[in-house]
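Homework help thread (please don't just give me the answer)

Our assignment gives two proteins as sequence + structure token strings and asks us to describe the second one. The first is just a warm-up. Here they are:
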Amino acid sequence: MSPAPVALTCGEPAGIGPELAVAVWEILRQDVPFFWIGDPAHLPAGSEHRLIDRPDAVHDTTEGGLPVLAHAFDGARVPGMPQPAQAQGVIDVIARAVALAQSGAASAICTLPIHKQALQEGAGFAWPGHTEYLAHLAGADEVVMMLASPQLRVVPATIHIPLSKVPTALTADLLAQRIRITHDSLRRQFGVVSPRIAVAGLNPHAGEGGRMGREEIDLIIPVLDALRAEGLDLRGPMSADTMFHAAARAQYDAAICMYHDQALIPIKTLDFDQGVNVTLGLPFIRTSPDHGTAFDIAGTGLTNPSSTVAALRMAWNMAKGRSA
């Protein structure tokens, strides 16, 4: 039985989200069943779309343009200029998508970019970002950010903190949690029966036996040994400068890195346009394009839909794998 369609949230109306929704429909209409949740008045002028009253109406036809589950907003869209009155609508669309995913009416959620400052100023948005709000709605205690493409999957153990704070933030409990959630998600959401996970060291050359730092000896190796005893297939700690070439990548299904740039530089170098943000640890599938609202080109027609296409394809493939 085919999964339910994917819900695509509108994101920040003043950004490139409305153009992306129309563009990806033209590309994916025959391949990925999805619907957009947003205000149809925010779509680019003349965009072909059809209103639906329930998600499964997506399957009725591929004619008539982008399927839209209408969600009314206050006021018109102004490309490049977020409107405070529309902030609550952006938040409510995310919540609506989560409710559809939790009920089974949507098989996955693909979220278009939001602008946190606009939401905070316009509606008192109380969460650090999109992911934290999704975790709150889902009642998930811990979530993990993965960047994924056909060439590489990476998970940063620490994310948006100064490099100077990484050694303190990197604890045994945090690293073990990141690895366990990644292992479980590879099996449950990506269909990898026996996940192989590579783990980078923190220091150059993975510490070189303690001569370049002791974090590998004192923290990383004990965590890996404990998880190996539980049956996890873990490689490392590995020197980060030798684990991302093609032959090395063929030996694992995902890489755990110690900090933001150690994870994101390789995937953005290898596959900048196809990188997808996947949130692990949620009770539903969530993907997102790996870019922001792009206010500077909103409304110009210059948007590149590649990452959103990749995000929707990945969400749909994960949904099919989960239902198999």
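The one we have to describe:
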Amino acid sequence: MTVLVAGATGSIGKEVVAALLARGAGVRALVRTAGRADVLPPGVEPAVGDLRDPAAVTAALTGATAALYVSPHDPDEERMADVFVTACDALGVRLVFAGVALTARSRLARLSMEALVSTFLPHYRGKLRVARRVAAARQRPTVLGVANYYQNDEVVRAEILDGRYPLPTHRNGVNRVDLRDVGEVAARALTDDAFPAGAFALAGPESVSGARAARVWSEALGRPVRYDGDRPDWPDVLARHLSGAKLADYRRSYGFVARFHLPAPARDIARTAELLGRPPRTYESYVRDTAADWSSSQRPVAD
């Protein structure tokens, strides 16, 4: 079995790659340049090519049994997705997508969600069309809706270690998910023929507010971390770490979650647990693991 991963070096893709390798799957990664291949884990076969190039995408997919698609932060994201889905259809490759997607149960609920997103997050309109394009693929596609995730905290690592949590969040919190869980679900979808087709919203066990996030980090680091997300200059913090389309996406998205309470429906939490075969990871477990990694990376290496 060979699985092609598009977006293998990104936040979602690298977790999917790790989960695939843990399952013993052969992994091929589509990377834009040969330099990006240097950051791939051992055992991953690089395939160099641009998502805009149908010939390069077809070559990368040839021989693959399944493929993961994660849409990049790019003005051409819809064109890239169409090239990828078209190639998967032509080669009979089963497609799994992880990213922005609406998974409402009823048509009315979906239309209401689309109206909300279109009004307050107009840059997501293209992303939603990408998810719908994947859902229309021929080989039993699976769409995994991934909203806010714990690993966003790593963007502001410097600020957290400096004693402040700067990401704004509604006072009642937003549902967040661990990308390690996303990786495990996607890996199963890519390697298990019995995995159901369709669209699924992946969720963490509960909502997390900015104030709570600061408390959890404070406990894990053993020193005070205050919530600073209500400051008007929070977009400037993101600008210190991100740029281009990704910066614009994060600014708009966090402006949205600061304004709206976004809990996960109980059915999404239960479905995520069913797909994982266990409860989804808690925010506390993610922070403990990450704080330990940060502490280890700062230790001096003995001669």
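TA reply:
I won't write it for you, but here's a hint about the kind of observation we're looking for: The chain has a mean pLDDT of 91.
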